[in-house]
Design a protein that fits this description.
By secondary structure, the chain is of the alpha/beta class. Helix content is 36%, strand content 25%. The radius of gyration is 17 Å and the shape is globular.
Length: 251
């Protein structure tokens, strides 16, 4: 898709402008939820958009508050707030049943969406889905980082995906604890779920997808492990697998 096309904006009650691109088409539609510090211009989101355009299926991609072309500061964001952004897009931009695709943190958000709007979510596709990741992140932080977060409220965490460090806030950690799912088994989601995960993922261990699958109430859950796959799963063969998975779920 031509990224020179300006996005539309959904204005939230607090004035935050959520940037999105939406294409009308057949149902169920597809919504893409990006990852932590990612935006809607990524390889997976745009490849899915092209495929949905080619097949006449409705599609929406968007940026959370503080990400990409949306307004707001990243450091003001939390999993709860970003889920509210995603639900606002589901409620006010998309129509009818949706296949929600979530990458990394987006995999956590897609689960929260399915719990909040079960009547709107026809299926879920997780790519290295990372529910509860802030708890694991906190546990892995050394004591000096934990002290910095507790006293200063923010920690600049180096990232292999960006020249700029990720600004991790204590607000993000505390809010994330309130939205944890894996301690609430079974997770009351009954729709079909497909989980794709690279076994060379350095950020979210592939066994995490097995834990998620086991925790879900749904019996229609399939985990696909990609032996040489990384965290992003953005290689051509990964994109083809993602598209096939979405198509199969959409029917």
């Amino acid at each position: 898709m031509n990224e020179t096309v300006e996005p539309s904006f959904l204005i939230r009650p607090d004035g935050t402008a959520i940037a999105y691109h939406a294409k009308a088409g057949k149902s169920p539609g597809v919504i893409f939820c990006g990852g932590f510090m990612s935006d809607m211009t990524g390889t997976k989101a745009t490849a899915l958009e092209r495929h949905c355009a080619d097949t006449g299926r409705a599609f929406v991609r968007f940026d959370y508050q503080g990400h990409g072309q949306s307004s707001g500061a990243f450091t003001d964001g939390t999993v709860g707030r970003w889920t509210e952004d995603a639900l606002a897009v589901l409620d006010e931009v998309a129509s009818g049943p949706q296949i929600v695709v979530g990458s990394s943190m987006g995999g956590w958000i897609m689960l929260l969406m399915a719990l909040a709007r079960p009547e709107r979510v026809a299926g879920l596709v997780g790519i290295a889905a990372a529910p509860d990741f802030v708890v694991r992140m906190w546990e892995e932080f050394p004591d000096d980082v934990k002290r910095q977060l507790e006293t200063e409220g923010v920690y600049a965490r180096p990232s292999q995906y960006s020249d700029d460090p990720y600004q991790i806030t204590m607000r993000l950690i505390e809010d994330g604890r309130d939205h944890c799912l894996l301690d609430k088994k079974p997770i009351a989601i009954d729709c079909p779920v497909r989980l794709l995960h690279g076994m060379q993922d350095p950020d979210v261990p592939w066994r995490h997808s097995l834990t998620v699958a086991e925790a879900l109430a749904s019996d229609d859950v399939v985990v696909t492990l990609v032996k040489n796959g990384d965290h992003r799963l953005s290689e051509p063969e990964d994109i083809a697998r993602l598209i096939e998975t979405v198509d199969t779920l959409a029917g």
